[in-house]
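A common beginner's mistake is to predict each chain separately and then try to dock the pieces by hand. The better habit, illustrated here, is to supply every component at once so that their relative placement is modeled jointly.
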Amino acid sequence: MKPASFRYLAPRDEAELVSALREYGGDARLLAGGQSLVPMMNFRVVTPAVLIDINGVRTLSFVEWRSEAVEIGALTRHAMLEDSKEIAERMPLLAAAMGQVAHRAVRNRGTMGGSIALAYPAAELPMLFVTLGAELRLRSPRGERCVSASEFIVGPLDTVLADDEFIHSARLPALPPRAGSAFIEVSRRHGDFALAAAAAVVDLDASEVEGALMGQAPTKRLLEDTALAVIDSIEVEGDRQYPAGYRRLLLSTVLQRALDTAAARAEARHVH
Amino acid sequence: MADLALVEIDPKTCIPRVLRYAAVHDVGRPINPQLIRGQVAGGIVHGIGGALYEHCDYDDDGEMLAASFMDYLCPTTAEAPRMAIDHHDSPSPFSALGSKGAGENCAMSAPAAIASAVEDALRDYRAAITELPITPALIWRELNGVAR
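With all components supplied together, the output reads:
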């Protein structure tokens, strides 16, 4: 399988990237890790006239800690996040999610920005960013704007990213120090796309919680009921391979396991 | 030949995993036992593919649903179980060296052994595995008494 012919541009800094987007935005695709885009081009699902390779724009690859958040550049590889000791300590939920992204070879190339821009529904990062309330910094020839991950992702494979815009970075707020978290994913084989995945954060000190949970101990029964109520509100489509009833079972399983594990971790850290 | 499969099914995900596998095959007089071992191990993983993953499925319009390795699932090293492999050496009277074929017979034995193990795991549900691959949806239907 070979891609349709395209023009190749390789900007060396953000200024060159911005001018390339100004000129070719509507006809162009950005190439970061290429772990989804290149197969899609080879299958000719997408046939961009221009490919803008941003791998030379080094200023887009960084992990920086602020007091209450971590900022991650769009070109940061999954493997960099997976290997970071600081992320393992301060953002264990992110570290756990990265370990579930395909295989190591994919994580060596795949980038944060690429995963978010594609907004593939079975991918780990889009779901995690929405869960954690991440904020995305977008840049274009017209300037800069910040949108939350839940505003950014409109639906499966659909985002608010404009033709001439690129993701610069994401800002993830730190979890409360004594919160417990868990990332649970189900797939048929090691490294496959998730059939279902859930991320949970349990903070026993939180002042604002869901009405149904307020003031109650996180018993298994309570978490189970909460999970089932949430799943009832999710629109689930079945298909030939994975019927809707089976998908609902998977959703309740991952959600319950994520809540159980996160609650147990929060209890272990909680000072009574 | 004799094959034994230990299969675990998570009832909350309906996903089967082959945890351990034992195979003793009659290879006649072995010429290179190490090579036979490799052939049998590869055949077992091939058989796991046929039993649990590899599926040439078509939709109602005749469209092939597994036209790439994104959709046609092959087992990898991560799906390979711990194996115990031995040979039963009874020389063939029909070949010059007394040797027989080896390895490829796992493509027959492994799916049968794995399907039997799944039936055994689901015995409380009186499941009858009559088709391959044994997909999570098939197990879900057996567990919930859902007709196809």
